[in-house]
Every structure is written in C-alpha cells, then in structure tokens.
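Good morning,

Both structures are done.
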Amino acid sequence: MSFLRAADARDESGHLIRELHGVNLTTILEYLVAAYGWPELDARLRMNCFADSPSVKSSLTFLRRTPWARTKVEELYIKARSAEVQGRPRP
C-alpha cells in the first residue's frame, strides 16, 4: 500500500484521516503531544502555546480562538496519522 497518498489514508474505522471524522481538537492535540512532545511541536509549528509553559488546556484555548493555528495543528495531525497508518516514519 505504499502507493497510497497521505490524502487517501484511512483510520481503523475506514474513515479518511484527512476528513478528521469524529476526531476533536483535544484528541488531535493529545496525539501530537504524545508523538512529538512540547519542544518538538514548538520547533515544527512555532507557536508560543507550545513553548511558554505548555499545557493541553492553554493550548486548546489558543487553538480554538486562532483559526490559522488550528489549521496548522490539524495538518500536522493528518500527516502524522497518515504516515502511521501507512507504516511510514512520521514527518
């Protein structure tokens, strides 16, 4: 299945990952923190909510109020989950 694009990757339920079907922002953020950690998220996305006393609660507050930041976080989640499902290394 290495010929599949990241946009075609499906989760365990058969839903396209890029559609974020049934995935809320809290789940996305917790997945990324577990996968990368706060310092790596800050290095990749350059947001103060990941650098200055990061917590899930404060980051969620920022991401819910800032559409461009939420979009960046969702895009990283889609890339990371797609790579995981397809058996490739995380981007």
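Second structure follows.
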Amino acid sequence: MASINSYLTFNGNCREAMTFYQECLGGELTLETIGESARAEKIPNIIRRSIMHAVLAKDEMVIMGTDMVEERGLVKGNSVSMMINCNSEEEAKVFYHKLSKGGRASHPLQENFGGVLFGDLTDRFGNNWLINYDKNR
C-alpha cells in the first residue's frame, strides 16, 4: 500500500530542526549533507554542510527534510500540518509540550465531545503540528 510522509524544506537550519524533532519525538535520525553527495567537489564549501536529505523514523512515523530551497526562496504558509496520532494521553501531552517550546501553542490540548484529545501548535521553525489522541481507539 502507498504511504505519504511529511517532507519539510528549511532555509539552512534543517539539521537543527530535525535534531529538535528527534529530541521531542524520539526515533532514529539520518542526515546526508550536500558535501557527502557524488558531486561534492563541484559544490562551494559554504553549502557543503547543508542537509540534502534527512529522515527521522520511529515506528510508523517518518518525517523527512532538506535545506535544498528553490531560487525563489523558502515560502512558509499554513497549508500543511503534520498530524501525530498518539498512543496515549501522556504521549500527546509530552509531544505537545516539547514541540511548542519556542513556538506558538495556538490550541492547547483539550478533550472534545467525542472523547478525543486534540491540540495544535506552530513550532519554533514555523511548522504546524496537530496532536491527536483518541481514547476510544
């Protein structure tokens, strides 16, 4: 079956962001720099430390990222969010607390009418997160 993963684009701070996400969510982080690519000798030294491809994987959760930005630059918006379906109320609270540090906790975790604990936030890198725990699941 096909799957969809989040792929985030950063403007030179992919390593910092992905390390932050690993600290918040756990998992194994793999970082590949531009300097490690096959064409590294043709790349200016100043961008060799930039991240060409990053993968943070934990169980079924996969977040990918890069510092590779088009010439027009990075354009942030609110059209994409990453939703984490948590396995417990405690996990939801921990993820929400950690991810919102330095960001904006726009909608604190609250239980809705269906028994679902839900909240959203924007992290310090400008990325939107939806935190969800369905007690009835």
